[in-house]
C-alpha cells in the first residue's frame, strides 16, 4: 500500500473539505477574479466577430447543445467506420437526435444559417422515403465535413507538416508540445512503431530548436504515452513493465536533453498512477539527465489523489535535486473511471463526480504548484476564462514574489487562440498542445477530451 492509496477512493465530501481547507481564496479575491474573467470573456466575444466561418460554426454548435454533441460524437466515430451501411446508420442516428432548424433562425451569420438549413434538410432526408437515394450524397458530404473539422484540431499529419503549420505561432513566441498518436499498443510491433514515432518527433523538433538552454519555458517539446510504447503497461505485469518502460522512457529523455527540448509523460487511467510515478522517478533520478529541467508529467485534477500527489512529486524533486515540469489538466477519462469503479463495486469513485469539485481541485493544485516554483515548472492547461483569471491572481498573490515568472499556460491547438492572445500580453509563456497524426485516429482522441 502506497502513501497515495488512502486518497484514491476517499469519500468525496471529505475530499472537498480537505481542498477547501487548503485553498487560499478570500472574498475580495473571488470578486476580482470574476471581474477579470468577465473582461476576458467580453474581449473574446468582440474578437469572435472577426472569426473564420469554421470557428463561427463551432461556436454556434458548442458542446452545451444537443446539436454540438451530435456533431462531435459523429466526428469521434465516423472516420473509423469501415463500411457504408454502418456509416449510414451512424449518420442517421446522430442527425436525428438534434433540432437543427432552431439554428436557422438564431444564427447571426448567413453561412451558418445555410449550414444549419443543410443539416435540417439532411435530417428530413434520412427520416423520409427518399433516404435510399439521398444517403450517398449525405454520407460523402458528412465525411468531407468531418475532415474539415479535423483540420481545426489536428496540427499536422506528420511532424514536418506540424512544424510548417505551427510556424506562424512559434514566430510569435508560442511554444508547442507535440503529441504523437499512440494510444494503447497491443503488440510489441505496435509499441516499437510508436516508440520510433516519438523518437523521430524528438529529433525533428530538436533540430528546429533555437534555444539550447533546455528551459521548458523557452522551448517546445514532445508528449509521450507509456501505453503506446509498451503492450503490457498494466498492474498485472508491473514487475516486467516498470523496468522495461523506464529504459524506453530514459532513451527518449536522453534525446530530448541532447536537443534541449521538453519531454512530458502523459497521464492515463487512475489504476496506472502508481506504476507511472515509479517509472517517472526511475528516469528523473538518472545521472544522465543532470542539468536538464525539461522532463515532466501530466497530473489530472479530477483525481482525488491530485493534491497529495503534488506533495509527493515535490519531495522527489527535492530528494533528487532535480527540477521537474508538471502539466496540470482536469482529466480526460472520466466516463471510463466512473464505469470501472461501478463494475468493481468500489466504496467511492477515484475521481470527483461533480464538475465544481474538479474545478476546486484544479484551483488548489494550481495554487500549490505556483507556490513550489523552486522545484517545479507548472504548465497550467485550461480554456476557461474564470480559471485563467484565478491562476493570474494566485500567481500575483504567491508569497515567493515570482508573480508571472516560472510557469506557463497551455491550450489545445484549435482552441482558445483569441483568449490566450490577450493573456500572452502580460509575458507568460503559452504552450500549445499540438496533436500530430491521421485525422481518423487523432480526432476521436481529441473529441474525448472535448466531451
Radius of gyration, taken over Cα atoms and rounded to an integer in Å: 23 Å
Provide the CATH architecture of the largest domain.
Alpha-Beta Barrel
Uncertain segments: 110-123, 128-134
Number of helices: 19
Termini separation: 33 Å
Describe it.
By secondary structure, the chain is α/β, with parallel strands linked by helices. It folds into two domains: 53-152, no CATH class; 155-450, TIM Barrel. The chain contains 19 helices and eight strands. It has an eight-stranded parallel β-barrel with strand order 1-2-3-4-5-6-7-8, surrounded by five helices. Helix 5 packs antiparallel against helix 19 (439-450) and helix 16 (355-371) runs parallel beside helix 17 (385-397).
List its traits.
451 residues; alpha/beta; TIM Barrel; 2 domains; eight-stranded parallel beta barrel
Amino acid at each position: 500500500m502506497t502513501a497515495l492509496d488512502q486518497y484514491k477512493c476517499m469519500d468525496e465530501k471529505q475530499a472537498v473539505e480537505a481542498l477547501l481547507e487548503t485553498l487560499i481564496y478570500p472574498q475580495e479575491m473571488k470578486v476580482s477574479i470574476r471581474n477579470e474573467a468577465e473582461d476576458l470573456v467580453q474581449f473574446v466575444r468582440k474578437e469572435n466577430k472577426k472569426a473564420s466561418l469554421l470557428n463561427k460554426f463551432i461556436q454556434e454548435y458548442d458542446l452545451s447543445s444537443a446539436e454540438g454533441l451530435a456533431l462531435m460524437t459523429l466526428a469521434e466515430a465516423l472516420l473509423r467506420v469501415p463500411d457504408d451501411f454502418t456509416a449510414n446508420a451512424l449518420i442517421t442516428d446522430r442527425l436525428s437526435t438534434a433540432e437543427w432548424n432552431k439554428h436557422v433562425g438564431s444564427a447571426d451569420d448567413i453561412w451558418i444559417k445555410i449550414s444549419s438549413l443543410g443539416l435540417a434538410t439532411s435530417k428530413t432526408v434520412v427520416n423520409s422515403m427518399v433516404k435510399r437515394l439521398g444517403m450517398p450524397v449525405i454520407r460523402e458530404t458528412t465525411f468531407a465535413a468531418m475532415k474539415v473539422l479535423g483540420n481545426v484540431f489536428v496540427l499536422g499529419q506528420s511532424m514536418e507538416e506540424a512544424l510548417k503549420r505551427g510556424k506562424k505561432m512559434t514566430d510569435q513566441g508560442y511554444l508547442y508540445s507535440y503529441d504523437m498518436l499512440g494510444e494503447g499498443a497491443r503488440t510489441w510491433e505496435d509499441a516499437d512503431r510508436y516508440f520510433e514515432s516519438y523518437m523521430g518527433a524528438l529529433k525533428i523538433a530538436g533540430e528546429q530548436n533555437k534555444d539550447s538552454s533546455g528551459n521548458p519555458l523557452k522551448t517546445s517539446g514532445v508528449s509521450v504515452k507509456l501505453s503506446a510504447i509498451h503492450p503490457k503497461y498494466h498492474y498485472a505485469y508491473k514487475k516486467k513493465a516498470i523496468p522495461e518502460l523506464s529504459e524506453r522512457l530514459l532513451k527518449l529523455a536522453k534525446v530530448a536533453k541532447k536537443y534541449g527540448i521538453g519531454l512530458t509523460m502523459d497521464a492515463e487511467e487512475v489504476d496506472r498512477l502508481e506504476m507511472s510515478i515509479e517509472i517517472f522517478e526511475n528516469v528523473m533520478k538518472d545521472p544522465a539527465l543532470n542539468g536538464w529541467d525539461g522532463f515532466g508529467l501530466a497530473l489530472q485534477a479530477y483525481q482525488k489523489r491530485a493534491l497529495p500527489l503534488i506533495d509527493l512529486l515535490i519531495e522527489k524533486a527535492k530528494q533528487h535535486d532535480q527540477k521537474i515540469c508538471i502539466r496540470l489538466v482536469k482529466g480526460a477519462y472520466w466516463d471510463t473511471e466512473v464505469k470501472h469503479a461501478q463494475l468493481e463495486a468500489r466504496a467511492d469513485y477515484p475521481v470527483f463526480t461533480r464538475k465544481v469539485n474538479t474545478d476546486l481541485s484544479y484551483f488548489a493544485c494550481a495554487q500549490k504548484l505556483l507556490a513550489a516554483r523552486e522545484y517545479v515548472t507548472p504548465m497550467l492547461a485550461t480554456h476557461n476564462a474564470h480559471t485563467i483569471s484565478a491562476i493570474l491572481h494566485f500567481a500575483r498573490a504567491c508569497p515567493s514574489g515570482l508573480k508571472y515568472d516560472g510557469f506557463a499556460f497551455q491550450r489545445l491547438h484549435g482552441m482558445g487562440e483569441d483568449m490566450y492572445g490577450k493573456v500572452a500580453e502580460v509575458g507568460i509563456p503559452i504552450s500549445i498542445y499540438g496533436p500530430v497524426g491521421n485525422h481518423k485516429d487523432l480526432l476521436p482522441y481529441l473529441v474525448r477530451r472535448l466531451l
